[in-house]
Amino acid sequence: MRDAKPDKSAALLGLAFDNDDGHSRLTRGKNFVLVGGSQDSHSMMQETAVKINEQLDREGKRLEDVSVRELRDICRDVVKSVEGRKEKDEG
């Protein structure tokens, strides 16, 4: 009898090191953990992780099932969207 393969799992890990206000920031969510950063960079990581999950949900996919290339493409599109929104808010 063969041993059953464990279910695949995957998670996004976000790290930021631009914190100078003394706060420790940690956010856990559906398949992601975000650590550190200033308030702004941590917020950007949060928004990015949530939007990646939303995109996966819209496509009916799970993080552990997408290829590295597909995840890279999703991340690129989400980051462009998040950065564009930030520039609009600042401008």
Q: How large is the share of residues in beta strands?
A: 15-25%
Q: Can you give the mean pLDDT?
A: 91
Main sheet specs: 3 strands, mixed
Q: Could you say which structural class the secondary elements and strand pairing correspond to?
A: alpha+beta
Question: What's the domain count?
Answer: 1
- Beta strands, count: 3
Q: Spans of 5+ residues with little confidence (pLDDT < 50)?
A: none
SSE string: EEEHH
Q: What can you tell me about this protein's structure?
A:
There is one protein chain. 47% of the residues lie in helices and 15% in strands. By secondary structure, the protein is of the alpha+beta class. The protein has one domain (12-90). A three-stranded mixed β-sheet has the order 1-3-2, covered by helices on one side. A hairpin with a 2-residue loop joins strand 2 and strand 3. The chain is flat. The chain starts with 11 loop residues before the first strand and ends with a helix.
Write a compact overview of the structure shown.
The protein has helices spanning 39-58, 68-90, and strands at residues 12-16, 26-29, 32-36.
Secondary-structure map:
Layout: E1 12-16, E2 26-29, E3 32-36, H1 39-58, H2 68-90
Which key phrases capture this entry?
flat, three-stranded mixed β-sheet, alpha+beta, 91 residues
